[in-house]
Amino acid sequence: MAVATPQRSAERAAAAINQTAPSRSGGERAFAGVLFFATIIGVVVLAVLLIDILLDGLPRLNWQLLTSYGSRFPEQTGVLAGISGTFSLMALVGLMAFPLGLGAAVYLEEFAADNRFTRLMEANISNLAGVPSVVYGLLGLSIFVYVFQLGRSLLTGALTLSLLILPVIIVAARESMRAVPRAIRDGGLALGATRWQTVSRQVIPAALPGILTGTILGLSRAIGETAPLLVVGALIGQRASTAPWEVFDRFSALPIEIYGLIGRPQAGFRESAAPAAIIAMLVLLLLMNSVAILLRNRYARST
Question: 63-302 maps to which CATH number?
């Protein structure tokens, strides 16, 4: 009776793998081809949209468009109210949503007990990330406008958008802190540090690049939202708040301005002014994301 040696067993295993490899590699190639085809479709559609916007909007994009308020005439209208309102909104949203989201993530990940209530909170936070934005607008209208009597102000818009992106920041921050090795926590506690000292001085700095990535994604979503701002009463085509400290004044934003330009009856607003405003919003989004990415990479190198 032949005795199976380790070498013979390894040869048999390799032969079995070689027999099944063609079928598996064929399926993998087919799946990779489907994914590549889907990616190409998305890239082509995006390229067509961008080219169409650039062709229509670049001839109209000038300094006068960026430094003027709305006008009855397409060639004289501007989106300064939307640009200043967007900057003010993003400044307030970042100041409110980042510390609240980080604090909630730290509590749920590091300090909360593993019980039914905590699991219910985690499930609700994950589900809130997929709620349509208009629902947040109705929530902001009900609570901030009518209950707290904040009016249809810049503060109301910022609070509404903060609620919109909080689930994204919380989920991203928790995942980043979960990726920090357990040995870092154990080492800090073993050296005599308290739990809060370990979290604040070791865990959060190590997870900060991922936390900033989640914040960037949240702000990128907030900057393009129109429905919640319309619900809470953002102005269209009018002079509005230009600074984040004017929190109780009426406000506008670039998505609202674009919505108003597209709804004008004159063709010049739809065919030239609106595409130019879209280009301005894309450039503003890229600039804000670039600054945030630079900050994230700086913290990543320092840790």
Answer: 1.10.3720.10
Domain residue ranges of the chain, discontinuous segments joined by +:
63-302
Which pLDDT tens digits describe the chain residue by residue (303 residues)? 444 455 555 565 555 545 544 445 677 888 888 899 999 999 999 899 889 888 888 888 888 888 888 778 878 888 888 888 888 888 899 999 999 999 999 999 888 888 888 888 888 888 887 888 889 999 999 999 999 988 888 889 999 999 999 999 999 999 999 988 888 888 888 888 888 889 988 898 888 888 888 888 888 888 888 889 888 888 776 665 556 667 888 888 888 888 888 888 787 777 778 888 888 888 888 887 787 778 777 776 666
- A 10 A CB-CB count for 179 gives 10
